[in-house]
Specification:
rod-shaped, about 0% strand, about 95% helix, mainly alpha, 2 helices
Length: about 190
């Protein structure tokens, strides 16, 4: 009876371990899918950044052209100051100053966006490596675990059967000895 209880406990442990392994596989696969989805989003971000850089470059060029035109207008206005009110020249200079700041902001944004491109690629490459490792674990490591657990269960069963067989042999020997002693005692009597 004790052996039957131990066997039941062993199978419960096996079922628990097997269930845990299946749970690990599900978590790994879910993580792999999430990483691959992230890579798709990152690829879209990469493309959007390329388009954004191109748009910024167009705006920067147009801004530089306008900046140069305004500088020339201001120089012309200052050279012919008698034809203009002071506020007109001041307003043009203020607009030029704001345009300069905006151009600087766009140039900084362009540089930062360009710098983000290799960062995106690095994250994508790391994600690909991780997804491949996860897939490798699912296809190679996890089956190895299951094989080793099956072997351990079989070895445990062998051990249990061996113990039962030893008990049977012991009991048989004990019965034979007792019967021989009883036969001897009975014969003498």
């Amino acid at each position: 009876k004790n052996l039957v209880m131990n066997t039941k406990k062993m199978f419960q442990k096996y079922d628990t371990i097997s269930g845990n392994i299946d749970g690990i596989v599900k978590k790994l696969d879910k993580g792999r899918i999430m990483i691959l989805r992230d890579n798709t989003s990152l690829q879209n971000l990469f493309k959007q950044n390329l388009e954004f850089i191109e748009d910024l470059e167009g705006l920067i060029i147009a801004g530089q052209i306008k900046h140069n035109e305004l500088e020339n207008e201001i120089l012309n206005m200052e050279a012919n100051a008698v034809n203009y009110e002071d506020y007109e020249i001041s307003d043009k200079k203020e607009f030029l100053s704001r345009l300069s700041k905006r151009l600087t902001d766009m140039q900084i944004t362009r540089v930062i966006t360009i710098q983000s491109l290799p960062q995106i690629r690095l994250v994508q490459n790391n994600n690909n490596t991780m997804a491949e490792k996860i897939q490798s674990s699912i296809t190679t490591t996890i089956p190895l675990w299951k094989n080793q657990i099956s072997i351990a269960v079989s070895l445990q069963r062998q051990k249990g059967v061996k113990e039962v067989q030893e008990k049977i042999n012991e009991t048989t020997n004990t019965i034979l000895l007792k019967n021989a002693e009883l036969l001897k005692t009975n014969s003498i009597d």
